[in-house]
Design a protein that fits this description.
Keywords: Calcium, Membrane, Repeat, Signal, Transmembrane, Transmembrane helix. By secondary structure, the protein is of the alpha/beta class. The chain folds into three domains: 1-87, Immunoglobulin-like; 100-439, Up-down Bundle (ABC transporter transmembrane region fold); 560-721, 3-Layer(aba) Sandwich (Rossmann fold). The protein contains 22 helices and 13 strands. It has helices at residues 95-100, 108-120, 123-157, 167-192, 197-215, 218-223, 226-244, 248-271, 278-329, 331-336, 340-393, 398-427, 429-439, 445-469, 523-530, 574-578, 591-600, 605-612, 625-639, 655-670, 680-685, 700-705; strands at 6-14, 27-32, 55-62, 78-83, 481-490, 500-507, 512-516, 546-553, 560-563, 643-646, 690-695, 708-713, 717-721.
Length: 724
């Protein structure tokens, strides 16, 4: 009763956006004084210049002791808020590359560095990386300790001049020190597998690539390479995590080991009471600095060759995936035109092309990886010759010679590891470039903000007009769907659809409306505009793929579902598909209601048995065209939206079944839902139901049940006609 005081509590709830970092948490009580119908909740966001994952949080109305003189709606009690982030991935340093779509021309090491910095801001990643570096530091300490213990054992425990009586205690001490750190390192490395660094990195990339795809503008969707995008989500995201980011802590640890090795070579003579000559210093430190200069020079020399080979390999793999995707999607054409053999032969050609590219890349990688081993072999060979002669002449102790040999081998292994890590990171450059391209594609967020704000303004004005007229009923139910001189045209049609000429129409809530007219005149465009598939004209918004004028007003509290003409099904059981549009926990998806609606549509006994007993996915293989069309309609009715927009619902049905569908749609409108509680109180607590359908022409039952029939034409736009 709006003439009484109503209260309800609300609160914010974290999703990907975290309170205190991207927005300020808020909880309070909304108080609606008698006659008051609208309240505004303001949430303050925290802005920064750093790219983040798509950030969302919920504002939830609570069903608690403060809920007075009101009930919560099924769908409107939770609002999912999206914080629009227009920063560039991985950092705003590359904004120009984003605008010019030129990530192929930017510095790849700098791009990789900025990605690593961005990813390191993830708390899970940051904690795991720091822990991994600590483990590597412990390993480096154990490595240096082993070097010292080997030298100590040869020159001070087992030498000819050493006291045999103290050898036992010395060896025991060496064994204890060597074994002390090993179990600790083993346990920590075992625990490292649970720290989710790679998983969190892949999650960030893969989930946001999918989010981006679902928000792309029409222009991006028209020209997107779906196979490349699929591989970006699977192959490239995984490669970037495992071959690049996960290698960076190891790379850092390798440099730590080099530093510790250099410090060891300075500290060891001091600890043993020996001086360090200039010649000895050159022998000790020269290789440590010569190695990186040689390896990095070779790496720079091979960069373009390696990148070009990897890009060619990825392109060949993309072509394979695209061919398989098209073969599966067009199976019926392949079968009907007897092109199975030709399709397989084309695929084999692409496999051969990929194998050739793969072998070429593998050969390049073998040569790249072996270069460090060649350098190490050359250095140790030279030292064996020079140092061995000094041992033979008595100018160098055997332990010192062996220690140097271990150090040079360790230097070679370490710089070989660094080189291998750099090659691995370099191999991920192509993956990073692809991901940057798709992460920075144009999305509809700004346009949706504009249309949402504009629609809210129109709805509030309409509410004021309704309240002035003091009509009977809830004013929110009296706000119509309104086309106000709406003109819509694609900037680049490309065969997508027709232009909608300026149209003015009013569709009161609680009606059944039919749009008729010749093909390609704009009927589907109208349904897409109503269903939020297409956005109305957005003056002043840059990233939109349409143009026009006028306005479209849809009451913001209404839940609208758009249903295309072609039946589509998701992965899962028949029941999962039929309840796809139902909110979790809602009684709309009860098995009893689902079964009742399916029986109303005269689904076959076989399908009814699968619905109630069989939860397998085999049901898809037995569907006829009529079954698919009826399940398509059943799913929409089970979803129970306030506004249901269906494109050609009777296209695949005979006249008798078409009449039945129109009768059921009429009942859906009259009863404010189908198979719902018929209690008068329950009826009045539900919103009116509105159905808008398209047809080539309307006759029979369709003409009888329609409240208004609109003719849509390229000359006159949308106009009401006399259905009789």
């Amino acid at each position: 009763d709006v003439n009484l005081r109503s209260t309800v509590n609300f609160r914010t709830m974290d999703l990907t956006a975290k309170a205190g970092k991207k927005y300020f948490a808020k909880s309070d009580t909304l108080v609606f004084e008698p006659g008051e119908r609208v309240k505004t909740i303001s949430i303050e966001t925290i802005d920064d210049a750093v790219w983040d994952t798509t950030l969302e949080f919920n504002v939830e109305l609570l069903e608690d002791e403060q809920l007075k003189n009101c009930i919560l709606g099924s769908f409107l009690k939770i609002a999912r808020i999206k914080i629009v982030d227009d920063d560039t991935f991985p950092s705003n340093r590359f904004t120009r590359a984003k605008e010019e779509r030129s990530f192929n021309r930017v510095s790849k090491p700098r791009l990789m560095w900025d990605f690593a910095v961005m990813n390191f801001r993830n708390p899970t990643v940051r904690k795991g990386v720091v822990r991994s570096i600590c483990i590597d530091l412990l390993e480096n300490i154990a490595f240096i300790l082993d070097l010292f213990l080997n030298l100590y054992m040869v020159d001070y425990v087992l030498c000819k001049k050493c006291d045999p009586a103290s050898a036992g205690s010395g060896l025991t001490l060496i064994v204890i020190l060597r074994c002390f750190l090993f179990p600790v390192i083993h346990y920590l490395q075992y625990r490292e597998t649970t720290w989710k660094v790679g998983g969190a990195t892949r999650m960030t990339l893969q989930s946001n690539l999918l989010r981006k795809y679902l928000s792309y503008t029409l222009g991006v969707l028209q020209y997107i390479d779906e196979s490349e995008l699929i591989l970006a989500m699977t192959r490239d995201a995984s490669d970037l995590a495992s071959m690049a980011f996960m290698k960076m802590p190891t790379l850092f640890s390798s440099f730590m080991r080099l530093t510790m090795l250099l410090l060891y070579q300075v500290a060891m003579p001091i600890a043993l009471g020996k001086s360090l000559t200039i010649t000895q210093a050159l022998v000790r430190f020269g290789p440590a600095f010569a190695f990186p200069m040689v390896l990095i020079s070779f790496l720079r020399y091979r960069t373009k060759t390696t990148e070009k080979a990897l890009e060619a390999q990825h392109s060949a793999q993309n072509a394979m995936v695209q061919h398989v995707k098209m073969a599966i999607a067009n199976f019926e054409i392949v079968r009907d035109y007897r092109k199975r053999g030709a399709t397989i032969e084309q695929f084999e050609e692409k496999i051969r092309a990929f194998n050739g590219r793969f072998a070429h890349t593998a050969a390049i990688n073998v040569n790249n990886n072996k270069f460090a081993a060649w350098c190490t072999l050359g250095l140790t060979s030279i030292w064996i010759q020079i140092g061995g002669m000094q041992v033979a002449s008595g100018t160098m102790a055997l332990g010192e010679f062996l220690n140097y040999l271990s150090i040079f081998a360790a230097l070679g292994a370490m710089w070989g590891q660094v080189y291998s890590l750099l090659l691995s990171i370099q191999a991920a450059f192509a993956s990073l470039e692809t991901i940057c391209k798709y992460m920075n594609g144009d999305v509809e967020d700004e346009a949706r903000m504009f249309t949402g704000t504009s629609n809210l303004r129109h709805c509030r004005a309409a509410m004021m007009e309704v309240e002035k007229e003091a009509l009977e009923g809830d004013p929110a139910d009296l706000i119509p769907i309104k086309f106000d001189a709406l003109h819509f045209r694609y900037k680049d049609q490309g065969g997508i659809g027709a232009e909608l000429k300026p149209s003015t129409a009013i569709l009161p809530q609680g009606g059944l409306y039919v749009l008729v007219g010749p093909p390609s005149q704009g009927k589907r465009t109208i349904l897409k505009l109503l269903g939020d598939v297409l956005l109305p004209p957005c003056p002043g918004v840059a990233k939109v793929d349409s143009e026009g004028s006028g306005a479209l007003m849809i009451p913001g509290h209404l839940r609208v579902i758009h249903v295309s003409k072609d039946p589509l099904f998701v992965e899962g059981s028949l029941l999962t598909n039929l309840t796809y549009g139902v909110q979790n926990g809602s009684s709309d998806g009860s098995l009893e209601r689902v079964v009742a609606i399916c029986r109303r549509l005269l689904l076959s006994d076989t399908l009814m048995q699968m619905l109630t007993k069989d939860f397998s996915t085999s049901w898809k293989t037995i569907l006829s065209s009529t079954d698919q069309a009826l399940l398509h309609i059943a799913r929409a009715l089970i979803a129970n939206p306030d506004v249901l927009c269906i494109h050609k619902p009777t296209l695949f049905l005979n006249e008798k079944m078409g009449d039945l569908v129109y009768e059921i749609l009429q009942e859906y409108v009259l009863n404010r839902g189908l198979e719902m509680d018929s209690n008068p109180y329950a009826f009045h607590t539900r919103r009116p139901r509105t159905v808008i359908v398209t047809a080539r022409r309307v006759a029979g039952t369709g003409a009888k049940v329609a409240d208004i029939v609109f003719n849509v034409s390229s000359e006159l736009g949308m106009m009401a006609i006399n259905k009789h």
